[in-house]
Design goal:
single chain, 415 residues, mainly alpha, 2 domains, 16 helices, 0% strand
Length: 415
């Protein structure tokens, strides 16, 4: 499990750790604010493309080798980013970093769905969700510490290099090849047929649509919350830093409570409905807060947004991977959910920020409309009934691995 955690938090570390050094990086490489935006956009686009490549490919050639090779190239590309002296070289390296960094993230999801089913799989994804919600806080904090120690933005990328090297080492020793657990089984399908069958599955479609909506809201929050707090409400940057850190930490706390206390008591469908409802209510409160100009009310809505996301994201990943595993196509399912989250969700979030024209109230209003789509999908369907989800979960319960000390990857027979 520790190796899977390292793989799962590649994206937030690669995107957020160097954020405190964006100003100095832009000055060194040239391009001003365009450099900052391009560095983020380039990574997210290539990262999304990587999901489309490594997920389906891993269904054919296996997970482990792609995680290791992708991790090694990710480390090398990150090192080139740290050494870059001009913008062109930096952006090329950044795109390679995102493309191959997608392999560990995408395939960590597939590894879990290869081996675990039912409630145990949901618990594993919830555990990964704890670290995913904490990573966006830890990463900028590490970057800020690097600056306080007198280093520069290049040192931040070297920190990511060290993390990537540790990730590769842990993956080499801690992640077995799980794809062979389902290879050759009757339900395994050819790529094209598997893709068609996956898209026909109502659970997968709904999970992807909801992923797009909640991701759009989340990425808009990441991109615009500082401007709303500092520019619109006129609060000091230090206050914003405190609020966003407290918000992320509270989200991690909710994830821990869900993983340890509630996951046995609440059905998957109920958790999803509660989470999406909280997101919608949070955005609605933010609409009121920005409309009347009350900062604490807007941030109360933002806290609700993150609280809902903490419940929703692991559940959505679980549903998409459950669908893929029933076809022997966990990698393909990971590709679909990754594109929904990192490409479509991020793109819609960026469009919402652009269309709002700097108006905090209009942005929150747009996000409320987007969140309502996800809420309608979740509340207006019977597809997420527990008996259907259980039917998916019992299609192919993975057997034990034949060799190696891989007890942490063996499914609980009680599920």
């Amino acid at each position: 499990m520790p190796a899977l955690v390292m793989c799962a938090v590649v994206a937030p570390l690669a995107t957020d750790l160097y954020l405190p050094g964006l100003t100095s990086m832009s000055a060194d490489l040239g391009g001003g604010s365009v450099t900052a935006q391009a560095s983020l956009t380039t990574f997210l686009i290539s990262f999304s493309v990587g999901f489309l490549i490594w997920g389906p490919l891993s269904d054919r050639v296996g997970r482990r080798r792609l995680i290791i090779v992708g991790g090694l190239i990710f480390v090398a590309a990150t090192a080139v980013c740290a050494l870059s002296t001009n913008l062109t070289v930096f952006l090329i390296a950044r795109s390679i970093e995102g493309l191959f960094g997608a392999a560990p993230t995408a395939l960590s999801r597939a590894v879990v769905s290869d081996v675990h089913r039912g409630q145990l799989a949901a618990k594993k994804f919830a555990s990964l969700g704890i670290f995913n919600s904490a990573a966006p806080v830890v990463a900028p904090a590490i970057g800020t510490l690097v600056l306080l120690l007198g280093a520069d933005w290049r040192s931040m990328f070297w920190c990511v290099v060290v993390f990537g090297a540790v990730m590769v080492g842990m993956s080499t020793t801690g992640i077995p090849e799980t794809r062979r657990l389902v290879q050759g089984e009757p339900h395994q399908l050819a790529f094209r047929k598997a893709a068609i069958e996956l898209l026909r599955m109502p659970v997968f479609r709904i999970a992807c649509i909801v992923t797009v909506t909640v991701s759009a809201v989340f990425f808009s929050y990441l991109g615009a919350s500082e401007s709303i707090t500092v520019t619109y409400f006129g609060l000091p940057p230090a206050v914003y830093g405190t609020l966003v850190t407290a918000n992320a930490l509270s989200g991690s706390l909710i994830a821990v409570i869900y993983r340890t206390r509630l996951i046995h008591r609440l059905s998957t469908a109920l958790v999803l409905r509660i989470g999406v409802s909280i997101i919608f209510i949070g955005v609605a409160i933010a609409v009121i807060g920005t409309g009347v100009g009350v900062a604490w009310l807007a941030w109360a809505g933002f806290f609700g947004l993150i609280a809902g996301n903490t419940l929703v994201f692991p559940t959505l990943v679980y549903l998409t991977q459950l669908s893929g595993a029933s076809l022997g196509a966990g990698g393909l399912a990971s590709a679909g959910s990754g594109v929904a989250q990192f490409l479509l969700g991020a793109a819609i979030g960026q469009i919402a920020v652009s269309v709002s024209g700097g108006s905090a109230f209009l942005l929150c209003l747009i996000l409320a409309a987007v969140a309502s789509v996800g809420l309608t999908c979740v509340l207006g369907t019977r597809t997420l009934s527990e008996h259907r989800l259980k039917a998916l979960g019992t299609v192919a319960t993975a057997p034990r691995l034949a060799t190696g000390d891989e007890s942490s990857f063996v499914p609980d027979s009680s599920t």
